[in-house]
Amino acid sequence: MRVVILGSGVVGVASAWYLSQAGHDVTVIDRQPGPAEETSAANAGQISPGYAAPWAAPGCR
Q1: Mean pLDDT for back-to-back runs of 10 residues, the chain (61 residues)
Q2: Where does the FAD dependent oxidoreductase domain lie (predicted)?
Q3: Quick check: 12 and 5 in contact, CB under 8 A?
Q4: Which residues pair with 2 in a beta bridge?
Q5: 32, 38 contact by CB (below 8 A)
Q6: Other Cβ atoms closer than 10 A to 9
Q7: Which of 12, 40, 46, 59 stands 20 to 30 A from 34 (CA)?
Q8: Are strands 2-6 and 25-29 parallel, antiparallel or unpaired?
Q9: DSSP letters of 35-54?
């Protein structure tokens, strides 16, 4: 089966890999020149809980 995936972010590339491993002919299309240059870049502008310290953490003043 021929499949077209729009977007070369984390989900698009992972989907393309999985489908290609299953024997499909996959084409990935993105408006950016390289992969993961929009929402997948910089964690979509979100602060990851693993990188943020709580205000009431021991040692915070």
Answers
A1: 94 96 98 84 63 64 60
A2: 2-55
A3: yes
A4: 25
A5: yes
A6: 19
A7: 46
A8: parallel
A9: TT-STTGGGGGPPPGGG---
